[in-house]
Amino acid sequence: MKRKINSVCLLNPQGFVTYPPPLGKIDTGGQTLYVLQLAKALAEKGIKVDIFVRKFDELSQNETPWPKVNIIRIPCGNTKFVNKEKLYELMPEFTEEIMFYIEKKRKKYNVIHSHYWDGGYAGTLLSKMLDIPHIHTPHSLGKLKKLEMSIEEVPVKKLKPMYRYHVRIAIEQKILNKVNAIVVICETSRIQILQHYLVDFEKLHVIFPGIESKIYNPKKTKYDKLHPLKANAILVVSRLVPAKGIDRVIEALRYLKKRVPFHLYIAGGTVDNQLSKEEAQTKELINRLSKKYHLKNRIEFFGYVNHDTILPAIYRNADVFILAGRYEPFGLTTLEAMACGTVPIVSKIAGSREVIIDGLNGYILNTGNRKALAERLYKLLTNTKRRRKIAENAAFTIKEHYSWSKIATKIIKLYSRM
Could you tell me the domains of the chain? Predict the structure, then answer.
C-alpha cells in the first residue's frame, strides 16, 4: 500500500552542509551536494525536508536555503570539526539530541533517509525510537575502499588508522541488516554490496543521482567570458586526495607533451585554502610530479570555485574532463561535465561510467594505465569534429535522463512504498 509523503528527515552528520556548499572543504564534496540537491528536489514537489547535521565552529543552528528545506545543526561532542572517520563515536549522542529537538518542536516524519555510514548508524537508532521506516544511501563502502585503495601505491598499513576499516565495516553490516531499503547510486554499487556484505537483494534499489539542469547545461553565460581556457584544455575537478588519482593524470601527460599542445586545469579546494594533511601531501605530490616531468607551465590550479556560476563555465570551456579515481563510488562531476557538453574520460571503477556508452557520449578507461590515458587524450585533442559530436551526445544524455526532478519522483515512489 502506498501512502502520501509529507515530511522527510535526512541524516548527514558530516561535512559543511550549507548552501552553497564550500565544495573541496574537508569531507564536503559530492555527497553533500547530493543531499542538498535531493532536499531541494523533494521540496519542489511539495515535501517538507529537515536535514540533520552536526553543529561545529560558528555555524548557526538553523538554515533555510529553500522553501520547505531546513538544515538543522545538532551540537554533540565539542564545538570543533570532527573527521568523518571518527564521527561514529558521537552518533548515540547525536541521535539523542535529535530526539530532544523533535519532541520539543513536535516534528513528525514519514521516513528517515540516512547518508554514509555515520548517518546510517544514527538512522538505525532514530528509526527505532520514532518507529518509522529507514532508507539508507551508503555513498561508499568500507570493504570496497579498502580493496581499491590498497591495490596501487597506497599501502593498507597506512590506510588502516586513517579510515578505521574494521569499525566501519562492522557498523555498515548492521545498518544494511536493519534498514527497510537501500538506495544505491548505480548498478555497480548494488553488485558490490551483494558481493561483500550479507544483505537481502529486495532491499536494494538503484536510483542514479541527478543534475541541476538549469545550472549545468551547454548554454553559455557571462561567466564563460570571464574564465577562458587555453586551447586543448583538460579539466580535473576533485578534492586533492589520493583516491581521486590526479597523479595518474600528471603521469599520463608526460607521454603527451611532445605530441600535442595542451593545458591541464585542476579545480577543487577549500574556500580558505586550509588543506588537511592528506590534501597537502597530495598537492605536494602533484607539484613534485609536475616538476619532474617539466609540466609546471602547462598546469594550473583553480582552487575553490563557485559551484553554481564559475564551475559550469569552466566545464563548458574545457575540451576534455577526466575522472581518474582509484576509488569512486559514483562521481557527480562526470554528470556535471557531460551536462555542460564536455567530453568525459572516466575511470573503469567509477560508478558514473554506467551513464556512458563508450565512444558515443564519453570514454571508459583503465586510468591506471598512463600510456592508454595519454593515447585517448591525443586522439581526442587532435580530432575536433569527433570531440564535438561526443560532447553533444553527452549533454543530450544528461538532459533526457538525469534531471533532479525525474530522480526525485523515483525516490518519492520508494518512500511511499515503505
Answer: 7-210+404-417 (3.40.50.2000), 222-401 (3.40.50.2000)
